[in-house]
Amino acid sequence: MSQQLWTDPAGEYPLECGHCHYPIPGDPEETDDGMYCSTACREAAADDSTMVDPVAYKRVVTGVEPLDSLVPNGIPADSFLLLSGDEGTRRAELGIELAWRALERGEPAVVMSFANPPTATLERFYQNGWNVLPALETDRLRIIDCFTHRLDDREEFLEQRNDWSTFVGEAAEDAIVEVRDPGDRRELINSLRGALDDLEMTETGLVTLDSLDELESILQDRLVHEFVTDVRATVCKARFVPVVAAASTAGEGGPPEAEYVFDGIVDLRLTDQLVPDARLKQLAVRKLIGAQFLPQWVTYEHEPARGLFAFGPNTDARQVYEIGDGHRQSMRHR
What we know:
- GO terms for molecular function: ATP binding.
- Residues 61-295 form the KaiC-like domain.
- This is RecA-superfamily ATPase, KaiC/GvpD/RAD55 family.
- Keywords: ATP-binding, Nucleotide-binding.
- It is a single chain.
- By secondary structure, the protein is an alpha/beta fold.
- The chain folds into 2 domains: 1-51, no CATH class; 60-263, P-loop containing nucleotide triphosphate hydrolases (Rossmann fold).
- The protein is 33% helix and 20% strand.
- It is built from 13 helices and 14 strands.
- It has helices at residues 39-46, 55-58, 65-70, 91-104, 118-127, 133-137, 154-159, 163-171, 185-198, 212-218, 221-239, 258-261, 317-320; strands at 29-31, 34-36, 59-60, 75-76, 80-85, 109-113, 141-145, 176-178, 206-210, 243-247, 264-271, 280-288, 298-303, 307-310.
- It has a 10-stranded mixed β-sheet, with helices on both faces. Strands 1-2 form a two-stranded antiparallel sheet.
- A hairpin with an 8-residue loop joins strand 11 (264-271) and strand 12.
- Helix 5 crosses helix 8 (163-171) and helix 9 (185-198) packs parallel to helix 11.
- The model is unreliable at 323-334 (pLDDT under 50).
């Protein structure tokens, strides 16, 4: 026989356990201090180890409009999310924006870059008008540099930077974690864990990996699979810190683990079937374990400062783009 949820005296709302905050499904464990769902929770509460409300950290509203419109209740914080899409769909900008939105919420962020040196990674924020210098100074942002030590002449590269890149590099020096051998899976994992420990990232913040395509060029397929599995277990599942990785061809000759290792997959595509002579960008959630999502495509565009924004089926795309004279002007706010 199924158990009945215990409710408040009015019979309207399920009673929450005083420790784990989940509904009490059977006879409660009662004490002078409250009611609990189990002996384990009652004893834990007696030891002053009451948990925070799990809703506070188990769901993430990303702040990215097109994505949040498809996942109205938020993305589970223990998710490893894959951004899979065509070239030209602004996968990289989406990854950077997710990190920026975390910083905007006052949370820490880690960007693990395989495709660019740290100054170029930081420049992606600045290209969007997002000033990360305060986050660097307040120790809320880490850049894990998996690129620079792959260069033949690292010193020459540093000497050839312009004044702005030199300034940004020096300002970010304490926030950059250098990986000396990106081909060493264990060093990659240890560098990430060290950054998470330094920023005290448990139940807060976000990690982005740019990109799995580049990582595959460094590691063998088996090692990429082991890396993703390890990160998912030790970061997402153990710490409740979401990880977002970008790849260009998942499910179509891309990472073989894509269909079952990742908790969520967001597809990004270009389509020319909505507006004549125009290729519009769309995204959809293919899967997301532990969350409801709308099974539809959302048309979107990107604008500096604003980031990715959605426009609906009744919007004339020509009002979002200036199309017709061979020149595309900047997008208008809608």
